[in-house]
Specification:
Layout (H helix, E strand, L loop, with lengths): L6 H40 L3 H6 L11 H8 L3 H32 L5 H11 L4 H15 L5 H24 L5 H8 L4 H12 L1 H17 L2 H6 L9 H6 L9 H35 L1
Helix pairs in contact: 1-13, 3-13, 4-7, 4-10, 5-7, 7-10, 7-13, 8-9, 10-13
């Protein structure tokens, strides 16, 4: 015999649930405001003069100094650095997505001798800090004659980011149904055509995830571009160019804030447009 809950207990339970939701929403709102405050402060500072930045700690500028953006774009050569960063980012995204998707497909769909050893070797290298590999990478670029070129910087940026994406692709491909490949083989489709026309389109969420993560890595990387561009400042990226606002005797805070805003806006817009694919891709990789 089922026991019916009294109206009082139902109301009390609904009240507890409502209170819990209200408390969680309040806490998350406070955390969100704390999290986004540095970005709001950066945009606010980019619209102030250097004297007002210290005199007016508020968020709203008293006089809107839009010329900071023009100064950052032209006088600080951020336009050139933006173009360099775009080349490195697009080139590394193409290389990383192509190579990691193919290797992840093989590791995720096929069983062969040494597969587990190779897979665990990839996982182990994820935990190696970038600072430990910066010297061998630079020496290799110098040996190849690419240490002072955008092409060499693109290759170096691509190589450092590939490991984790191979693991993500392997996890995603491993959960796709095998009947699709078997049907394609019966029709006489080759290995590459199966990968390119059958499996890769199904992994679109994972591809978008890798694209977003590699764009974030290449666009914001500082240490590797700093080392590679020391001999040729003309190929600096945005992250290294922003650092140039810091002089020995003076720091142009408002110009630096304007340059940082210019640098971060493309990444924010890209994530807003592709966030649905990003979440689906990570969910599929974890499930696999």
């Amino acid at each position: 015999m089922r026991h019916r809950l009294s109206p009082l207990r139902i109301v009390f339970g609904e009240h507890r649930a409502t209170t819990r939701i209200a408390v969680m929403s309040t806490v998350l709102t406070i955390v969100c405001l704390i999290w986004i405050y540095p970005f709001v402060w950066m945009i606010s500072t980019s619209l102030k003069s250097n004297s007002e930045m210290f005199a007016n700690p508020g968020i709203v500028p008293q006089s809107w100094a839009w010329e900071n953006y023009g100064r950052a774009w032209t006088e600080a050569n951020m336009g050139k650095y933006f173009f360099n960063t775009l080349i490195v980012t697009v080139g590394s995204v193409v290389l990383v997505t192509t190579c990691t998707s193919m290797l992840g497909y093989v590791l995720g769909r096929y069983r062969f001798p040494g597969r587990n050893v190779l897979f665990f070797a990839f996982v182990a290298t994820v935990f190696i800090p970038q600072g430990f590999t910066i010297i061998p990478v630079f020496e290799l670029l110098s040996w190849l004659g690419l240490s002072s070129s955008l092409f060499g910087l693109t290759i170096a940026t691509s190589g450092h980011a590939m490991v984790i994406f191979v693991v993500l692709f392997a996890g995603y491909f491993s959960q796709l149904p095998r009947e699709l490949e078997e049907a394609a083989r019966v029709d006489g489709v080759s290995f590459l055509r199966i990968f390119w026309y059958v499996m890769l389109p199904l992994a679109r969420p994972m591809v978008v995830t890798v694209v977003i993560m590699q764009v974030l890595h290449a666009w914001n990387d500082f240490l590797l571009p700093l080392v590679v561009t020391l001999a040729n400042p003309a190929i600096r990226t945005l992250s290294v160019g922003i650092y140039a606002f810091k002089g020995e005797q003076f720091i142009d805070w408002t110009g630096m804030a304007a340059a940082a805003t210019i640098s971060i806006l493309p990444i924010v817009l890209l994530f807003i447009l592709l966030q649905r694919y990003f979440i689906n891709g990570l969910a599929g990789a974890v499930k696999g």
